[in-house]
Amino acid sequence: MGVQDRRDAMEALKGVEAIFFDVFGTVVDWQGGVSQELNRHYEGLLGIDWIAFAREWRAGYFATTRRIAEGGTGSMNVDVVHREILDSMLASPRWEHLGLLWDEEKRRDLTLAWHRLSGWPDSKEGLYAIKKQAIITTLSNGSVKLLVDMVSNWQLITLCELQEA
């Protein structure tokens, strides 16, 4: 983005008091972050498509939250949901070989990989520029703990968990 483009973007924010951002996919690179975390910690496991693993895990999250939104039962705590999906994946024929290798400690650590995600390369700079003009906040169905772990760029976090939504 050039200097004039930035000026135009800041001009467009005049009168805007707060901006809500989706976090996963918009501000942070969940797919790259989770697959890199898997690769870094479990690099001895050759031939594993960690991107496919991350995508399947995230797809399971969407399916679970959609089912709950449609009246199904289940936890809305993202950490609980991520862990349930992980355990389910590791019991499936595609990933059961990993399930045999990963004990409780590894599974707990891997579930927390979602707390250690990094922003897209331009996210921090962009958020910093925007918060000079307006309050920036998350609008997320992530858990309080998950968002607090990633809060450094935010002035406020707004969560479904707090709204009982």
> What is the gyration radius calculated from CA atoms?
18 Å
Q: Describe the strand arrangement of the main beta sheet, using strand numbers.
A: 1-2-3
Shape: elongated
Give the beta-strand count: 3
CATH topology of the largest domain: DNA polymerase, domain 1
Instruction: Indicate the mean pLDDT.
Output: 84
CATH class of the largest domain: Mainly Alpha
- Strand percent estimate: 5-15%
Give the number of helices: 9
Uncertain segments of ≥5 residues (pLDDT<50)?
none
Keywords: Hydrolase
Protein name: Haloacid dehalogenase
InterPro entries: HAD-like_sf, PGP-like_dom2, S-2-haloacid_dehalogenase
Organism: Hermanssonia centrifuga
What can you see in these coordinates?
With 165 residues, the protein is mostly helical. It folds into two domains: 1-29 and 119-165, HAD superfamily/HAD-like (Rossmann fold, 3-Layer(aba) Sandwich); 30-117, Putative phosphatase, domain 2 (DNA polymerase, domain 1). 52% of the residues lie in helices and 8% in strands. The protein has nine helices and three strands. It has helices spanning 3-12, 30-41, 50-69, 78-91, 96-99, 104-111, 123-130, 144-149, 160-163, and strands at 18-21, 135-140, 156-159. Strands 1-2-3 form a three-stranded parallel β-sheet. Strand 2 (135-140), helix 8 and strand 3 (156-159) form a beta-alpha-beta unit. The longest helix has 20 residues, at 50-69. It is elongated and about 55 Å long. The model has no long low-confidence stretch (mean pLDDT 84).
